[in-house]
Amino acid sequence: MALYGHPILHQQKFKYLTDSIMGLEKYISEPREINYSQELVFAKLSSLKNLEQFVSAEKIEELNRKGVDTKGFKFEDFTATEDRCSFKISPVGNVGIEIIEREPYKTIKIQGDKSMPFSIILWVQLADIKENACKIRLTLHAELNMMIKMMVGDYLEKGIDKLADLLTTIDYGEESTSST
Questions:
Q1: Alpha carbon of 172 to those of 40, 70, 156: distances in Å?
Q2: How does pLDDT run across 123-156, given as a tens digit for each residue?
Q3: What residues make up the domain containing 39?
Q4: How many whole angstroms separate alpha carbon 104 and alpha carbon 126?
Q5: Is residue 46 part of a domain?
């Protein structure tokens, strides 16, 4: 039997091929400063119920006036609990996300559910810089095959920074529905 025909070498070659076809991509935003305390920002972002106020047509228009590029995005059928939410977003379709981990005042990890066309985990990281200000950085881990990466990779790269910009425009002093 030739070495190439050996079952273990076949498995290793298959693993190499599938790893090169499907890969874990990482998209990281530049850190942004938010002029609210780390505690207020965490309280607002750690409940997915709080997202609803940001997906209305009026809010999208307000963000456009502030210079946040939201062209082409339209949210519909938004439902949420503190840990999960789902909505329809054009041009993507139905999307569901859930918070899978919270480290008070520091980290929120959000995972896409089975409705997503690929697996994602979003890390929201907060760092205190002074009494009433913190820094936020977003890291998106996405398991993408080569074709999906070619189609959406640039959007994810730009989108993670746009999302970070958007998160700096929120009034974190407003009432939130979070409990830590």
A1: 6, 21, 25
A2: 999 999 998 999 999 999 988 888 888 888 888 8
A3: 25-168
A4: 10
A5: yes
Burial group, residue 114, by CB count within 10 angstroms (0-12, 13-18, 19+) = exposed
Number of structural domains in the chain: 1
CATH of the domain at 132: 3.30.530.20
Q: What is the pLDDT of residues 40-84, one digit of tens each?
A: 999 999 999 988 777 666 766 776 676 666 665 666 788 889 999
Phi, psi (rounded to 5 degrees) for 144: -125, 135
Q: Considering the domain boundaries, does residue 15 fall inside one?
A: no
pLDDT surpassing 60 at residue 162:
yes
- Look up residue 75 and give its amino acid: F
Cβ atoms of 166 and 124 closer than 8 Å: no
Residue 176, in any domain of the structure = no
Residue 58: which residues within 8 A CB-CB, separation 6 or more? none
Determine the Cα–Cα distance for residues 142 and 24; give it in Å rounded to an integer. Answer: 6
> Residue 115: inside a domain, yes or no?
yes
The model's pTM is 0.76
Cα 59 to Cα 6: distance, rounded to the nearest angstrom = 60
Assess contact for 15 and 21: CB atoms under 8 A: no
